[in-house]
Amino acid sequence: MTEELQNIEVAKRFINQGIAKANMKVFDDILDPNITVTTGLSPAASIQGIENYKQIFSSFADAWPVKHFVIDDIFGVNDKVVVRFTATSVFKKDYYDVKATNQIVPLKEVHILTFRNGKIVENIVSATNFPFEYIMYPVLKDAVIGNLEIDI
Fold it and tell me: What are its GO biological-process terms (predicted)?
């Protein structure tokens, strides 16, 4: 099996079991300890390190459990694997002081995974999660808009 195909298989496991099922053992098995993650779950700065990523992601997954999950596209070139998926989650628990609503929320994301020696060393997440962002607006507005510089 080529390295690209191995990376795709590892990416599938990470997305299907680590992300979709919030399985932290999969995070431990697949992620480099010094991973860097760029995601809206940490809008002020990239997440540095596996322990920080696990804490931030597991908190999100606990509040927004996934009910349905499908990988729409996956492909790899050299040390990169790109995964596009659609998930359906439910806002079950309060999250960053926003009260849970039990709303069913669609999530559409693209993860660009970079591999080194069979481990994921970087994850860049791009998402079109407008319902989630709308619900979380009271928290996100300061984290996102508060960081924008005004040039007058």
Answer: polyketide metabolic process
pTM: 0.88
Distance CA 6, CA 62 (A): 30
Q: pLDDT 10s per residue in the chain (152 long)? A: 788 889 999 999 999 999 999 999 999 999 999 999 999 888 888 999 999 999 999 999 999 999 999 999 999 999 999 999 999 999 999 998 889 999 999 999 999 999 999 999 999 999 888 888 878 887 766 665 665 566 66
Give dist(CA 119, CA 99) in Å, integer.
36
For strand 47-48 and strand 66-77, is the pairing parallel, antiparallel, or unpaired? unpaired
Question: Are the C-beta atoms of residues 142 and 39 closer than 8 Å to each other?
Answer: no
State whether CATH 3.10.450.50 applies to domain 3-147. Answer: yes
